[in-house]
């Protein structure tokens, strides 16, 4: 049984969040998204000429995305360099960004997206996607919508939003974790993964809770971008 959350949050409550854009002057677009003790920084370079040339697509652009969990982001020190987990997360983030960015509007071009996790306390792929989509918008890429992402899941019998690492590890055999990414204005899910066990009915509740959380994140993302463009038009 998990009746009260370790950090006293309600079961459908997100951790405290911060979002800002335009944090890396040399990048075309950049953003930082922090949720609890998880923080992602994203930088976007391009659109530019495709290198190596043979991966160029004549009728659309391509996104090359790298997720990097920095060694000092976790208590045990993560191994530097890309491991299998980093490669998998880079791929699912790319798949989701491919749905958000209108690639057809940038033929023969390439966009590089770099994501750095400076602190990890679960939910890093979702924080990465949120930061990366804000950075793409900050870079002025043509987009169908922002991506808002958060994990929901189950601990004991309780359906929970935005699990911490402590919560993920708490339940015997592990909690159930379901990262969800949404194009909010289209109500389109662009990433859905499941780590653990849930019934069909529970999964529906988990997805509903995740979507509601994503809508809150969406508001924060929009506010961060508005702040940036208002400041820019003033200067
Ligand atoms: P996500 O970060 O998207 O939830 P995982 O479920 O793979 O992805 O990881 C859950 C959490 O486990 C991470 O956010 C991080 O807190 C922790 N973690 C992942 N990899 C490592 C690692 N190599 N060393 C220490 N902690 C890690």
What features would you describe in this structure?
The protein has 235 residues and is α+β, with helices and mostly antiparallel strands. The chain has one domain: Ribosomal Protein S5, domain 2. It has four helices and nine strands. The strands form two sheets. A five-stranded mixed sheet has the order 1-2-3-5-4. Strand 2 and strand 3 form a beta hairpin. Helix 1 packs across helix 2. It is globular and about 55 Å long. The chain starts with 16 loop residues before the first strand and ends with a helix. The site of adenosine-5'-diphosphate (ADP) has 13 residues, from helix 2 and strand 8. Component of the archaeal exosome complex. Forms a hexameric ring-like arrangement composed of 3 Rrp41-Rrp42 heterodimers. The hexameric ring associates with a trimer of Rrp4 and/or Csl4 subunits. It comes from Candidatus Parvarchaeum acidiphilum ARMAN-4. Belongs to the RNase PH family. Keywords: Cytoplasm, Exonuclease, Exosome, Hydrolase, Nuclease.
In N-to-C order, the SSE pattern is EEEEHEHEEHEEH
Tally of helical runs:
4
Q: Under the CATH scheme, which class?
A: Alpha Beta
Oligomer kind: single chain
- CATH architecture verdict: 2-Layer Sandwich
Rg is 18 Å
Number of strands: 9
Tally of structural domains? 1
Distance between the termini: 55 Å
**How is the largest sheet built, in terms of strand order?**
1-2-3-5-4
Task: Report the mean per-residue pLDDT as an integer.
Answer: 94
Low-confidence stretches: none
